[in-house]
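>> received
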Amino acid sequence: MTDQKDDVYGDHISHKFNSELNELKTEFLKMGGMVEAQVEQAVKSLIDSDAELAEKTRLKDKEVDKLEKALDEEATLIIARRQPTARDLRLVISVIKMVADLERVGDEAKKIAKLALKLSEEGQAPRGYVEVRHISEHVLHMLHDSLDAFARLDSVQALQIMKEDKRVDEEYQAAARTLLTFMMEDNRNISRCMSVMGVLRALERVGDHACNIAENVIFMVEGEDVRHTPVEEAEKIVGG
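>> returned
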């Protein structure tokens, strides 16, 4: 398997160019940490029926959107000023794509916070919170690892995240079946269970976005586009 790559995105003659690329990476990771915390807090507000935390988490979305615009502008200026080629262009293009995924993770966190507020108002907690806690831990781990893989230029770690995505899909489907059975047993639970289903779906999408980030890390490191590629094929690319 390919070992972790040295950070070659900072060895240019132009110190200014080095600085710009490092700043782009730093700001991307800052945004990643922000949305990671946003998802974690949204889930906590749901589990704890904490309406105040849910509202704070929901409002965080504006900060994420602002950072997305700033990163897009920064990346566009680098392309315009430096006209990067090869590995540098892969970095900048990948950051633009990954920023979009992070923004969508923030959107999913906002949805969870809104549903947490709704469920808090409805009172008694329905079934599904155990599944929410379990899947949230899984996708947050994937998101954290995808950001770590980016920071370390680690295509092996990124490949592992691609493998985890299938497990999250299976966990989501199993949880959805459990909730559907519960709703069929007592139709008074339908409204609240549908809200929990919305939370589970949002978390499943967070896992999808973490996987997208991992795919872009592989593109950065290996120079191969593994989107829509079976994991077995991606293993051959990373294994080189």
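>> The domain at 15-239 is CATH 1.20.58.220 (Methane Monooxygenase Hydroxylase; Chain G, domain 1).
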